């Protein structure tokens, strides 16, 4: 079985990334390991008294993100691809790369928006960082606006 790590951010392009990753997983008889990395500072706010921590804000945000991960996992499973998920907090690049090693990943699947010829904009800073530092092959899927796709 081919192990595929799929980082998701719940952005507007997550559905397209998910569809591409599922197609790829089916072609290579793969298993998808969904990962979402939440920032470490979710519950912090700056107020009149400086930095303040609100654990209930962090708990609610994490709970909502776990619900979203569960929904994505169920969609992948419904498409006939084995899947598990995890949510971690910290620096996304480092956590994703470590998770890929922990899962003996054969591939990391990332998305690119393809909006400009400038590499950082074309690939994205997280995708660029992972591609640059990964020992594991990174499959970058083009993620475009639906209307752009129809025109091409």
UniProtKB/TrEMBL annotation:
It comes from the Bacteria. CDD domains: USP-like (cd00293). It holds the Pfam family Usp. InterPro entries: Rossmann-like_a/b/a_fold, Universal_stress_UspA, UspA. Residues 3-142 form the UspA domain. Belongs to the universal stress protein A family. PANTHER family: STRESS RESPONSE PROTEIN NHAX, UNIVERSAL STRESS PROTEIN UP12. This is Universal stress protein UspA.
């Amino acid at each position: 079985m081919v192990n595929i790590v799929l980082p998701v951010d719940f952005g507007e392009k997550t559905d397209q990334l998910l569809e591409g990753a599922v197609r790829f997983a089916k072609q290579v008889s793969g298993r998808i390991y969904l990962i979402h990395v939440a920032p470490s500072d979710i519950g912090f706010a700056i107020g009149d008294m400086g930095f303040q921590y609100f654990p209930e804000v962090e708990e609610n945000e994490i709970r909502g993100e776990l619900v979203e991960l569960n929904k994505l996992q169920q969609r992948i499973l419904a498409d006939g691809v084995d899947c598990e998920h995890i949510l971690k907090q910290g620096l996304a690049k480092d956590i994703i790369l470590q998770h890929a090693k922990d899962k003996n990943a054969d591939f990391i699947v990332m998305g690119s928006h393809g909006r400009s010829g400038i590499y950082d904009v074309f690939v994205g800073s997280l995708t660029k960082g992972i591609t640059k530092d990964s020992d594991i092959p990174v499959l970058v899927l083009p993620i475009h606006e639906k209307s752009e796709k129809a025109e091409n």
